[in-house]
């Protein structure tokens, strides 16, 4: 039986540099998920439904913006490669736009505040695409090895979850230090993380090389490239798996600050502990899941992760005030499951791109990754929109210390039953995913034979 063609192994320094590239975008996305909606409702004073709609509106722009950026990176030509120049020139504007979203320039003027935060959401979302889309598309250009790609994803999400963990814990602790000066507290906390988010993008630029020589980038129209992407059955299953699981995770992350504060009646210190438990467990579990994925297929790893996550969410839905120790324990269990949502879909995608190259004779990394990043944003936008609308419909009032029973019931529904439905959908797509380790080996052998004939 033929053996799998193997590329040269990447060094530890290269893997660390690659992983660092996801630190800044992950920190920014994590803080927006956990704290931006409470900031808009509790500090700025916007109604929950209006606040939730702001980021959702910006995603309409991403439907156009993300695929265009993906195609542009495919067609970029420079002495630094196709992807890395975007990190170099987009890093500082990305950090500035993130910081500006946490300022309160129009206190008490809700109309001006709405337009300000909507404009900043559009600008930040565009700059997020400028740095994150080229970064995610680097994976298949660094190595074509099945296990090395999983290893790269492991390093990526070690930085991603590590950054999310540290930022998620420190952010509420900083807010706690400023007492009632909420606007100043958010500006200080956001300014700190804006500064820390930029240098890792430069590290990624300097420490990686686009070594893998893929087929020439396509010059066919964007619409045709999208048609090719959606004609790839394996890609559609990855899309479904990721959209469902990511939506579930984002729903939970969005409602956690409200759940801890209003249902469990705990302070920001407990919120920091909850985030630490989730992200800390997710970070530690990455290394375990990476080792497991070297022995069994990727979709089976995903099945195991969903067992942990569904168990934890069910427990959180039934917790009562005063059971904070159980809350922390269940958060650890949830983090173990969340880790597979980070790791598995992104390690599947390079394998799908290999199949696409075998079928079409070209590589379309930019479009494939752009669409998946777009879905990542759609999951975030839907979670903010749903949480905002559900809370507003339930009678939630952000500036009130006590909430009606209907709002408290809504918080518990968002913690479990709603995301559970999405997770069951992701399990179906994982079951349908067709690329096993053996099938990927066959694909690489066929690609190797074709390239040798060129």
UniProtKB/TrEMBL annotation:
Question: Its membrane topology, per UniProt?
Answer: Multi-pass membrane protein
Q: Where found? A: Cell membrane
Q: Which PROSITE patterns match?
A: MFS (PS50850), NA_GALACTOSIDE_SYMP (PS00872)
**Superkingdom of source:** Bacteria
Give me the segments passing through the membrane: 43-64, 85-103, 115-136, 157-178, 184-206, 234-258, 270-289, 301-320, 326-346, 367-391, 411-433
Q: Which UniProt keywords apply?
A: Cell membrane, Membrane, Transmembrane, Transmembrane helix, Transport
Protein's name in the database: Symporter YagG
């Amino acid at each position: 039986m033929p053996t799998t063609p193997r590329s040269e192994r990447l060094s530890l320094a290269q893997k660390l540099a690659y992983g660092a590239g996801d630190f800044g975008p992950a920190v920014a996305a994590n803080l927006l998920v956990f704290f931006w909606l409470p900031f808009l409702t509790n500090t700025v004073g916007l109604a929950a439904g209006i606040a939730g709609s702001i980021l959702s509106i910006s995603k309409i722009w991403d439907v156009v913006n993300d695929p265009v950026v993906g195609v542009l990176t495919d067609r970029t030509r420079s002495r630094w490669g196709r992807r890395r120049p975007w990190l170099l020139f987009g890093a500082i504007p990305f950090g500035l736009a993130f910081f500006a979203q946490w300022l309160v320039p129009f206190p008490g003027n809700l109309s001006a505040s709405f337009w300000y935060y909507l404009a900043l959401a559009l600008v930040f979302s565009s700059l997020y695409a400028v740095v994150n889309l080229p970064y995610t598309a680097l994976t298949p250009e660094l190595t074509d090895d099945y296990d090395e790609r999983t290893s790269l994803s492991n390093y990526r999400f070690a930085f991603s979850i590590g950054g999310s963990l540290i930022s998620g814990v420190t952010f509420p602790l900083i807010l706690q230090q400023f007492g009632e000066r909420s606007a100043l507290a958010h500006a200080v906390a956001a300014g700190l993380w804006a500064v820390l988010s930029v240098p890792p993008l430069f590290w990624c630029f300097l420490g990686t090389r686009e070594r893998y020589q893929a087929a020439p980038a396509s010059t066919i129209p964007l619409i045709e490239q999208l048609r090719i992407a959606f004609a790839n059955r394996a890609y559609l299953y990855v899309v479904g798996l990721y959209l469902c699981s990511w939506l579930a995770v984002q729903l939970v992350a969005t409602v956690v600050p409200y759940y801890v504060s209003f249902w469990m009646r705990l302070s920001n210190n407990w919120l920091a502990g909850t985030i630490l438990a989730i992200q800390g467990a997710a970070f530690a579990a990455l290394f375990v899941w990476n080792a497991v994925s070297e022995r069994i297929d990727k979709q089976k790893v995903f099945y195991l992760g969903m067992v942990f996550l569904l168990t934890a969410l069910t427990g959180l839905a039934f917790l009562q005030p005063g059971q904070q120790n159980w809350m922390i324990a269940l958060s650890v269990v949830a983090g173990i499951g969340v880790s597979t949502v980070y790791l598995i879909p992104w390690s599947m995608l390079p394998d799908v791109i290999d199949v696409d190259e075998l079928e079409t004779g070209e590589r379309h990394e930019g479009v494939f990754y752009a669409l998946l990043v777009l879905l990542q944003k759609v999951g975030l936008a839907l979670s903010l929109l749903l949480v905002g609308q559900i809370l507003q419909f339930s009678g939630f009032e952000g500036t009130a210390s006590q909430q009606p029973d209907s709002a408290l019931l809504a918080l518990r529904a968002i913690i479990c039953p709603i995301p559970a439905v999405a997770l069951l959908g992701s399990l179906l797509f994982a079951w349908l995913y067709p690329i096993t380790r053996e099938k990927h080996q066959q694909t690489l052998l066929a690609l190797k034979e074709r390239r040798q004939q060129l």
